[in-house]
Amino acid sequence: MIARLARPISIRRLTKEEHVAIEASEAERAALAEALDLLSLTSLTADLSVSPWRSEGVRVRGTVRGTVSQACVVTLEPVEGVVEEEIDVRLHPDAGEATQVEVDPEAADPPEALESDVVDVGAIALEHFVLGLDPYPRVPGAAFEEEAEAEEEEPSPFAALAALKKGAS
Fold first, then answer.
1. Cβ contacts of 33 within 8 Å, gap of 6 or more
2. pTM of the model
3. Which of left, alpha, beta for 138 (phi over 0: left; psi -120 to 50: alpha)?
4. Which of 19, 34, 58, 127 is 20 to 30 A removed from 73 (C-alpha atoms)?
5. Residues paired with residue 89 on neighbouring β-strands, in sequence order
6. Matching Pfam families, A to Z (predicted)?
7. pLDDT number for residue 58
8. Which residue has the higher pLDDT, 137 or 56?
9. How far is CA 152 from CA 69, 145, 146, in A?
10. Contact 52, 58 (CB under 8 A)
11. What distances in angstroms separate CA 10 from CA 15, 118, 121, one per listed residue?
């Protein structure tokens, strides 16, 4: 089973901004927690507005929030966290693949392709939620001790070169 947060809405008759509130059910949260390798997903909500954009397009704006428990990458102890991500996605049927990509971190993301008259706002919210997850959760004070010991035991390559240089003099 693929974990999803499907909330499709038809934009065929969208003439003004509409509010969409999403709250993941217990079953959806359990499936998402398993798919995302989370210890638990206590809550997942999104408050979105969907509005017409440039005659045939649509704009989805809002916030997705969730409370998670992830395994520490060092100790595997639970690390509690809160995800809150802003959403501002524009979709348009004329949005296509750009031949040249310009990277400007301050600029808005380009519009995405709108392939039908149905937009899955749940999928958009879930995508932004996943991007907000901590990829390397750690319990405060947790460190990889084996790496620290290995670094102390092995001399730096530059130290070895300096020793060779001194011996050659």
1. 39, 40, 41, 68
2. 0.78
3. beta
4. 127
5. 60
6. YceD
7. 95
8. 137
9. 34, 11, 10
10. yes
11. 12, 4, 10
